[in-house]
Task: structure prediction
Amino acid sequence: MSGIVISFEGIDASGKTTQIGRLETWLRERGFDVLVRREPGGTELGERIREILLDPRWRVMHPRTEFLLYSASRAQLVEEDLVPFLQREKAIALLDRYYDSSTAYQGAGRGLSIKEVEHVNRFATPELRPHLTFFFDLPLTEARKRKGLQSREMDRLEASNDAFYERVRQGYLTLCAKEPDRMVRLDATLAADAIAERILEEVKKLLNNHRLDWRAD
Ligand code: TYD
Result:
């Protein structure tokens, strides 16, 4: 497989989706074949699993059940979409969440064993590690403020409490410390342009390492 995988992580409302769109445009303008997928979901089966996961009716879903549903959605995404796509020339997959979300939310957040979560993560995504992962670090108070502006109904996960989100954030920070070559922490309180610039800097480095020319014609 010759393609590149870049994942985007962080708590809700941290600005991931905007930045993914910007990077997608930048890459397409330079002739890359880009696939954007969001988790949970991304495939038809995965979207069905997503509906279950975000449905407030399942308030008492056990953390293990939750984790396995996320993993099932991810396994489908890998086999159905990512593996075939990454065979193509100049292929770059941009993932709005990937297995680090499970390590942070189900592991650090819900208290499942990190070791066991990482084990299942590997099982669900054989050989498919991201080359680069951006962690959008946003203080909870700021995320809440942004969410208030959006006024959409709280889904099952967003109804979780502040202590949970703080554990999730710490989970991500631990990953950044553990895998500094792959994980890049971004200050998500910065202006969108500044964040985009920082992302491009890292992506250009990655493309250079893979000897892929990123200069537009
Ligand atoms: P979504 O509405 O897509 O949130 P966001 O825009 O922040 O990505 O909902 C995804 C939710 O699922 C989000 O709260 C994080 C959670 N999640 C996990 O708990 N574990 C996982 O493995 C994944 C992929 C997501």
Notes: Residues 85 and 91 are 7 Å apart (CA to CA). The chain has eight helices and five strands. The mean pLDDT is 93.
